[in-house]
Amino acid sequence: MTATLTEEISYQGHHSVGMTIQKIEFGVSGMHCGGCSGHLTTMLSELPGVGDVKVDHVAGTASLTVDSDQTTFDDITDCVLDAGFDVVPDSLKTL
What would the DSSP string read from start to end of the chain? Predict the structure, then answer.
């Protein structure tokens, strides 16, 4: 991943916490239906620091926000493989 967006996030009377938030998109092969995209969405959403997951089986893409201090792209790739799909080589984009 080439670019990062660093944000200071404050919540309910606690001190600010620095997080490295990235919005990424990548290709996914092997999905054939809405059930496939729902399954992958659920699995990706369970990774620490991952949010706003959108998986489109028709376009063959997944996009999400990730705190790269908690989850790496290798972790995401392993999750996609564990779900039974493949990450399309050289398809990673930071948004």
Answer: ----EEEEE--TTSPPEEEEEEEEEEEEES--SHHHHHHHHHHHHTSTTEEEEEEETTTTEEEEEEETTT--HHHHHHHHHHTT-EEPTT--EE-
Asked if 19 contacts 9 with a C-beta cutoff of 8 angstroms, the reply is yes
Question: 22, 72 in Cβ contact below 8 A?
Answer: no
Q: Which long-range contacts (CB under 8 A, 24 or more apart) does 50-57 make?
A: 50/76, 52/23, 55/28, 55/31, 57/31, 57/32, 57/33
How sure is the predictor about 48, in pLDDT bands with cuts at 50, 70 and 90? very high
pLDDT band at 9 (very low <50, low <70, confident <90, very high): very low
